[in-house]
Amino acid sequence: xxxxxxxxxxxxxxxxxxxxxxxxxxxxxxxxxxxxxxxxxxxxxxxxxxxxxxxxxxxxxxxxxxxxxxxxxxxxxxxxxxxxxxxxxxxxxxxxxxxxxxxxxxxxxxxxxxxxxxxxxxxxxxxxxxxxxxxxxxxxxxxxxxxxxxxxxxxxxxxxxxxxxxxxxxxxxxxxxxxxxxxxxxxxxxxxxxxxxxxxxxxxxxxxxxxxxxxxxxxxxxxxxxxxxxxxxxxxxxxxxxxxxxxxxxxxxxxxxxxxxxxxxxxxxxxxxxxxxxxxxxxxxxxxxxxxxxxxxxxxxxxxxxxxxxxxxxxxxxxxxxxxxxxxxxxxxxxxxxxxxxxxxxxxxxxxxxx
Length: 355
What we know:
The chain is an alpha+beta fold. The chain has 9 helices and 13 strands.
């Protein structure tokens, strides 16, 4: 699912009575695992739980985190890490982040530009001269805006590939020889491979792997302590993944190696980690806000979404309200994707500070 930018939204006038029930935040129900529960936002948390609970599908799991003005005010897990186990989802549970990594890569590019390692509007062949000639006019700015003409996945088989990569440069043979699908800069054409190319450019410019780049410049400064590359390795805090089959039943998806997707969608992490990333961005810990606003084209609210085999992920950052909303699910499919996007907008409206 593509990331996008939207204007401010308000909660619709017609909502369920349950959504707007008043009172102090109650103890979580069985199957919920609270992390941060701010008493200051007790009423909003009650409403938030009513929004998120329906996202849990027949034994699957969901994690949510909301941050306001530099701190997480609510984080909670719902459901279980897998249908086969009765371990409750904790706020630290690691889900696939999918395209929620793309804003992370964009911030790393802004940092590299500030360091003088890259020029955002120069051809990427200046950094990677071995690229084919049709990349002569492709720039980092275009790659980050999905306007470079680099193709996306051909099909579900390619999207689910488990080829392993230690560095972003190792993934380039998977797509760089293919023709561009549009003239660079002429139109938007969503592409995860475009962000993989951006990851390779940043690697070469910094003289370190994308993993090392992320770890030193972003993972530690932003406190994304649970975020790591998505490989088949087991971990006790990682969720299992499911898709909905043609009968409506949940089907467990195989453990994939998404490491070649790098900064385009090759990482796992927690909802709290993603919220911390947005707090660091909104607090100008990572890059100046003027650079962020320029990248967003002057918009006040940025939304991002990611999907793939076995899950969905959505996030929102409100620059003026200094607020972020993150929801991660280990169930994939169009119905869940739409439900998460709707829940994201509702949580934004419920938690948005009153001017």
